[in-house]
From TrEMBL:
Localisation per UniProt entry: Membrane
Name the record gives this protein: Membrane protein
Keyword Transmembrane (UniProt): yes
Top-rank taxon, per record: Bacteria
Membrane topology of the entry: Multi-pass membrane protein
One Gene Ontology cellular component annotation held by this UniProt entry: membrane
Keyword terms, alphabetized: Membrane, Transmembrane, Transmembrane helix
Family: Belongs to the TerC family.
One Pfam assignment: TerC
Cross-referenced InterPro entries: Integral_membrane_TerC (IPR005496)
Coiled coil region boundaries: none
Amino acid sequence: MDSLVQLAADPTAWAALATLVVMEVVLGIDNLIFISIITNKLPAEQQSRARRIGIGLALILRLALLGTVAYIVHLTQPVFEIFGKGLSWRDMILIAGGLFLLWKATKEIHHSLDPDPEEKAGGGASLGFTAAIGQILLLDLVFSIDSIITAVGMTEHVPIMVIAVVTAVTVMLVAADPLSRFIAANPTVVMLALGFLIMIGMTLIAEGFGAHVPKGYVYTAMAFSAGVEVLNILGRRARKGKRKAA
């Protein structure tokens, strides 16, 4: 308890907490986009519950991994080499997660451009609840390990990590339904979000092979693309309003 009081009185700890919260929220955007796209393929009555379960699993995984911080740190140690490049368990997890994102995003883009006959006829959901949760859990694991390793690199105080993780996941929980509704109401945003997933997947693979990609570049590109899409949406609404007025 004394150590917690001392930590609370330390301005450096508060600065680290603020920085880590921002970092965790930004890293959570990737996870939230994937969860939104996956759950929007479920029946309407299951979507919100699936999002809550997916985000809840993300919180459980992150807190569980925080309890094994000493082990997580060792995931960055090379375990074998390929063409002279040492790969750690973290690298392999990032590569596997990146490949999964590339496969999933490419598959969803294909279905958007050329829907299955059954989907054209019925327009129903094309993904089961259990399958959706399984896919969300898989990506939760990848993003959780990346998140915890980022947290360990920024502070050595576990209470700060816990507060940052809980805060970030709470923000994800609050933003999940509005983001999913926005994506569902704007079909072009779905394609943009799938493009984001491809970019994130490529970034994970690059990170896994040791090519560091500054996150600022990635999120700046995403923000710019999202800004352009917002202008397109506003333009379409303005033209639609003029047609109605005419």
